[in-house]
Amino acid sequence: EEAPGEVTEDSTFDVLILGTNGSHTDTIMVASINEEKHKISLFSVPRDLYINGRRINEYYTYYGVDQLSRMVSTVTGLQMDQYVQVDLQGFIDIVDVLGGLDVYVSESLYDGLYPNGKGGYSSYSIDEGQHHFTGEEALKYARSRHSTSDFDRAERLNPALTPSLW
Questions:
Q1: Cα–chain-centroid distance for residue 135?
Q2: Of 30, 75, 83, 120, whose CB neighbour count within 10 A is largest?
Q3: What is the H or E stretch that residue 143 is in?
Q4: Lowest mean per-residue pLDDT among 78-87, 109-118, 128-137
Q5: pLDDT bracket for residue 9 (50, 70, 90)
Q6: Burial, 62: exposed, middle or buried (Cβ in 10 Å; 0-12, 13-18, 19+)?
Q7: To the nearest 10°, the Cα dihedral for 91, 66, 74, 20?
Q8: 124 forms bridges with which residues in the sheet?
Q9: Taking a C-beta distance cutoff of 8 angstroms, is the pair 153, 144 a contact?
Q10: 115 Cβ partners below 8 Å, 6+ apart?
Q11: What is the mean pLDDT of residues 88-104?
Q12: Strand residue runs (E) in 6-100
């Protein structure tokens, strides 16, 4: 007998997308592909979401991608069929291979603590309006979070990726 709300058949092909920086995963997303309905849903899992007493992104750091995949499945109810892991340079390369990204920035952004790659920080800002990002510019836009939140960051990243990848 199935429990109320239990998923008995997963009709989607679900891909766990991880943005990594060394042994840490900064971005956790799921692309859920429903071929029958010709629909792709792309959504973020907040990296600071607590599950079983620890942040979900810690499962990657301490136990690897398989355990993180199980935790994402627990939270979403979707069985991950594959995963894609992209580090910071891979993100830059993918955007550059696509010819860049056209993004409308709906609100000006300032981050005075953007990591400079040398153990310190620099400032990053961008004005509201239409922009064409190179891979490096897209990474800065996607990673900036000190003046906003992880939820804002995920919202900025989702619309930026969706038109180009699908």
A1: 15
A2: 30
A3: helix 135-143
A4: 109-118
A5: low
A6: exposed
A7: -20
A8: 111
A9: yes
A10: 121, 143
A11: 92
A12: 13-21, 24-34, 39-44, 50-51, 54-55, 80-87
More confident residue, 109 or 155: 109
With cut-offs at 50, 70 and 90, classify the pLDDT of residue 115. Answer: confident
Rounded distance, CA 103 to CA 125, Å? 15
DSSP 8-20: ----SEEEEEEEE
Q: Is 132 helix (H, G, I), strand (E, B) or coil?
A: strand
Give Cβ neighbours of residue 37 (< 8 Å, ≥ 6 apart). Answer: none
Q: In this predicted structure, what is the pLDDT of residue 153?
A: 57
pTM for this model (two decimals)? 0.71
End-to-end Cα, the chain, rounded Å: 38
Burial (CB count within 10 angstroms: exposed 0-12, middle 13-18, buried 19+), residue 163: exposed
